[in-house]
Structures are given as C-alpha cells and as structure tokens.
Amino acid sequence: MADLVARAATGRPGHTALIWQDQRLSWAELDQRVDALARGLAALDLAPSQGHPARVAIVLPNVPEFAQAYFAVLRAGLIAVPVNPGYTARELGHVLGDAQAAVLIAGPDGLAAAQRSGAAPAHRYAVGATVPAGAVPLAELARTGAAGDPVVPATGGEDVAVLVYTSGTEGHPKGAMLSHRALLANHEQLARIQPPPVRSDDVVLLALPLFHVFGLNSALGAVAYHGATGVLVERFEPAETLRLIAVHEVSTVVGVPPMYVAWSLLPELAEEFASVRLAVCGAAPLDQAASRRFLEVTRHPVVEGYGLTETAPVLTSGLASPVPKSGSIGRPVPGVSLKLVGAGGEEIDVDEDEDDDHAGGSPGTDPGEIVARGDNLFSGYWPDGREGPDPDGWWATGDVAYADADGDLFLVDRLRELILVSGFNVYPYEVEQVLTAHPVVVEAAVLGVPHPYTGQAVKAFVVTREPIGEGELLAYCERNLARFKCPGAVEFVAALPHSAIGKVRKAALRAGGTESGGTRD
Q1: In the predicted model, what is the mean pLDDT of residues 16-45?
Q2: Which CATH entry fits the domain spanning 419-516: 3.40.1190.10, 3.40.50.720, 3.40.228.10, 3.30.300.30?
Q3: Could you tell me which CATH number the domain at 27-155 has?
Q4: For the chain, what are the domain ranges?
Q5: Environment class of residue 380 by beta-carbon count within 10 Å: exposed (0-12), middle (13-18) or buried (19+)?
Q6: Which pTM was predicted?
Q7: pLDDT grade for 506, boundaries at 50, 70 and 90
Q8: CB-based contacts of 45: which residues, under 8 Å, 6+ apart?
Q9: Rg of the chain (C-alpha set)
Q10: Which of the 8 DSSP states describes residue 218?
Q11: Could you give the angle at which helices 470-480 and 428-436 cross, rounded to 10 degrees?
C-alpha cells in the first residue's frame, strides 16, 4: 500500500491527486509531502511492541493531512489506526489504549479528548491553526524530514498495514488487522470487473469518512491505486456536495444510503449529477423508494454491494452481476468465494438454476449465513489474530442472505445484534453499559429500529429507580458516546422481559412485550 502514491507520482506526476476547497495537490506534490512526513516519523525511532510495528492513530476528518499522514505511516513501516474524530474521550481512550498507540495525529478536539482520556501517547501532533499544550504542529514533524533520501517501505505482504476498530461480541470496539495483502487484493479484485468501478481518468467523490474502511480503501485507496483524482468533502451536506460534484465533474460516487436518500429529494439532482458515470452504495441496505427516485431522476441505478471491515471491505457487488438488481447485493467480486451455511451447518447450493421459476428477488434458496474466502480477508483481531479465517481461509460474517434463481444475493438479517446507523456499527452492549452507568438507571436494553434516513436508529428501553427526563438521559449519552451511537428515542418501562436464564428477551421488546411506564418528556 505504501508504494501506491510513489507509483502514481512516477506515472503521472502533474495529474491532480486531491482537491480540497480551493486547493489542488498533484501526485508529485502529495508524494513529496508523504516522503517528508515518513522521514519525520522514521526519525522518531519508535520501538515495536506486541509483536508488531508501532501504531500511529490518525484522528482527522477528510482533509489533505489525513491522506498525507495515512500514506506516510505506511511508508515509514508503521501501522495506521484511523479513528473517528467525533469520538468522546471514553471511546478514544479505549482505542488508544488497546492499540497502545505511540503517536497521535489529530485536530484540537481529538487532542483534547485524548488528553482527557488519560491514554494520550507521548508523541502528539496537531493539524490546524490551534496547537494545544503538549502537542507539536504536524508540519513541524514534516519539516524535520524535508531533506534526505526517499523512504523505502520496510513492510508489505502479510504485515499489518491498518488497524480498524469495529464493534464486536465483547461490546467494545476491537481492532481488525488489515494487511497490505488484504487491502491491495480488494483493489485487484474490483479492477477485474468490467468496466471497473474506478479508472485512472475518474474523479472520485471522497465524502465517506476516511476513518471508515469503506472510505479509506474503497475510495481513497482506490484513487491512489489507479492514480485517479479525489475530491475531499470534510462534512457531508447534501446540496453543497451536489454542487461539488458538478463543479469538479465527479465521475464516480462511492456512498452510503443516507447520502443517496438525501440527494434523491433535491430538485437539482439531475443537473448536478450529470457528470457521474457510476454511483455505488454499501455499508447498509439502501431504501428502495430512494433507489427508485434516484433512478427516475438521474437515469442511473445506484449499484449496491456488500462487505465488512474485516474484508477490506468489498465482498459482493451488483457490478459483478450481468444486470444489477434493486435491493440485491449482487454476486461475489472476482477472487472472492462465498457460501451460504444453514443453521445446522449444511452448505446451501447457490448455483444459478435456469429452470427455477423464481426471479427478480424471490428466494431461490433457503437463507444461510454468508461465509467468505479471499485474499482480501483480515488477519484476525488485534493483537493475536483471534477469530480470523479458519485454516482453509473461510470466515463466517454473521450475516444471513439468500440467492435468487439467477444467483444474485439478497441480505435477510444479521446473526449478530449490531445496529447499522448510516453504515456505522453500533453494538447494543456498549450503549447499554453507558446507560446502566447512570446512577438512576437500573437496567437497559438497546435495539435497532428502522429509520428512513440512516437505515436504522438506536432505541433504548430503560428501567429507572426514580424519574429522569428523556432529554437529561440523552445528554448523558452524548457525553459518553459518539453521536451515531446515541439513542434516538428512550422508552421508559417498569420492567424488561427476561428468559429463564435471566437474559433480556429482545424479541419480546421488538414485539412490544414490555411493562411500559410510558415515555417521559
């Protein structure tokens, strides 16, 4: 991965790599900045730990410094840890502590949150006009490496390149170890689709958060892999983003459902989307009404796909099907093998059946858990590789799908309890832990409920020992959770339904089986 920027700079040095606000950065200029920062990082002489190179946490929005830092970390032979800049001190502290980050590159808010967390590393570098006490401007670190021979990457292949934290069964985010091999493999796999999602002459919208693997590898990584051009969007605002698409003649849009839902409602969509040749969507199911509106207005379908953090991320795409179908996640991309496994462990045949009467989204097979194999799979969870692919390379995703008669896949449900809010994972246990830490909360249960804009929203069922206002409880959550994890609604109940072994029966909650005390204002 560290070679991509240098390769683009050699092949097309004057071609625009990144556009941000009124700035344009060529591949040669980006390569020079990456090399300078890589030399600065290498000069820190960071010691390996836990059997891996030192980790560098990057807590930034979609700005040029993110790309500079990300590729510099890889070029310096270190491990990048991209982190949501909206994280609270508690959340950021968990990631910094678990990864044992040696370096932090962040804006003022991220640096302040790290300081409050008690887990701030000794090396802290600031991006922006404000430099908090104890931090050094990132530009200063780059200046220390301004002169010298180009840095030759010391890592690659099976070495871990990126540690991306994702919700897991423990309820706390855990780091998925993505190797150089896995990240590169996904680009090679997608490039075998004809026509490929990204080409060297494309202008790609970089509106997906770069701390998320979808934005990091499928968008920014793809731009570097193909030597294309990326338009950085620091904060998604529907009308303004559409304007940028038109101004910069964006040709490829990589998005998530809320983006397409918002765009589909704007009257200027058709005119300002005129330059786009391909719009792809992932991370969560797209509302079919929005999909139909988008097609009617732009005459372009939104092509859906499916993947996970642990698969770097793309497993399937409608582009791999002869004709993309609305609501379908398509077929495995070249180089990826999938099988559906039933509840009893039996493998479900998903081969195409020309004689089957089912078509266009009707089940041709029984649902089964998606189990995947491919060079794009992760190396397990940090730091010891636990829960990774089995000895034969297969990994169970925890998602359930069926194949229609044509062999196209449709997601049905999740085996895990993860809630997908705008494509981001929210694990109920983490939210429940925060709620039950409040002094008046006796017990809490959290579910995902349908939401027209974000796909799902978080709803909390709460038992309290004394009255508390919903606003007060939500404000408490906002102090301890990133915004997308916070409940959108709280239902106060007299008691939660439990099973014989004392586990909360969430199926009963979904069905309305509670002793409700009413929702308090």
Answers
A1: 96
A2: 3.30.300.30
A3: 3.40.50.980
A4: 27-155, 419-516
A5: middle
A6: 0.85
A7: confident
A8: none
A9: 23
A10: I
A11: 120
